[in-house]
Design brief:
Number of strands: 0
Helix content: over 70%
Strand content: under 5%
Number of helices: 2
Length: 67
Amino acid sequence: MCCKLNHKFQLEHSMLAQLLFRKLLEHSRLVQLLDHNHCHNQLEHSSWLLLVHSRLAQRCIRTHDFL
């Protein structure tokens, strides 16, 4: 049973990691677009990225606690 739960947690973690990677890629594309338009605000985007990471981490923790 423990092995199944560990596998389920690893799968959930992998899915969250993939989601975070997609968000990082999306963020990178947005930054490039904003840089091209000369209106990039580094602090604002850093805060946005930290918020996304925090939300994903919280989901991961809740999933781990549930298991």
